[in-house]
# Entry
Amino acid sequence: MPELPDVENFRKTAQKAGGKKIKEIKNTGDQFSDKEVGSMNERLKNKWLETTSRRGKYLFMHTDAGETVVCHFGMTGEMEYAGERKELPRYSKLQFVLDNNHSLVYISKRKLGKVEIVDELEKYIRENEIGPDALDIGPDDFTAFIKGKNSMLKSALMDQSSISGIGNIYSDEIMFQAGLHPGIKCSKLKDKDIQNLYDTMRSVLETTIEKGANPENFPENYLIPRRNEGESCPVCNGEIKMIKISGRGTYFCPSCQKK
DNA sequence: GTCTTTGTTGGCAC
DNA sequence: AGTGCCAACAAAGA
# Structure
C-alpha cells in the first residue's frame, strides 16, 4: 500500500501530533528490540514534535531539538492517530505516547519498514539515495531523467534514486492514464510523450492524495480499483492483462496502452 | 500444502 | 564504474 499518496496521508495523520510532547515510546510489537526502543526513548522523551514532511515514500517527523524521526513503511506499514484508547491496532509495533495521552501508532504487518532517529537529514537522504520527490521534480529534470534511462518505462518510474515515491501500483495507474505501454523503452519515447507523462504523473498523484489514497473514491476511469487480470478496462472495456516487469506484477490494458 | 503481495537491497550479468 | 534485473527478505491471505 504505502506509496507516495499513502505516505502523504500518513504524514497528515502524524501532523495531528504536531505541537505535542512525546511522553514515552512503547515497544508494542516484535519488530524492534527493547534496546532499540530504549535508545529511541533516550533521544526523544520529552521532546516536542513540531512539523512533518515527506520525501517519496519516507515520512519525516521533526522535533523541536532538530532531530528527525524517519519512518518508512515497507510493503504493509501504516500510521494511525489514536485517542485515549485501551486497545492498540493489530500489528502495532511502536506507540508514541503524547502529553495529552493520545498516541501515534506505527503499524507494520510484515516488519519490512523502519523507524530511525537522524540528526543530519540531508546526509541521510544522500546516503539512502532518496531522489527528488515525484511532486517536486520539474518538467525539465523529469525529461532529462527519462531520456537518460535505458530501461523499460515502468522500471524507470519506480527508480527511487532518480525520482521517489512511485511504486508498483501507482506506476501502473500513471502509465494507464498516459496511454503508454509499461514495457516500452524510455529511449523510444518522444518529447511529447514525456511531457504528457509528466503532467499525468502529477495529476494522478494529486488526485489520489485528494481522495485520501482510497481506491474506492478514485475517478471512474482509474485502473487501480480494477487492477486484476481479466477485469475490464474502465475506458474501452477490453480485458486487463498482467505481465511481469522486473519481477513485479504489472497490469495494463493492451488496447489503450500500445507500444 | 502453493502462490502471490503494495518495498528495498545485495548480488550477478552485461 | 555504472546500469539493469531479479531473488530474497517476512508474514499473511487466497
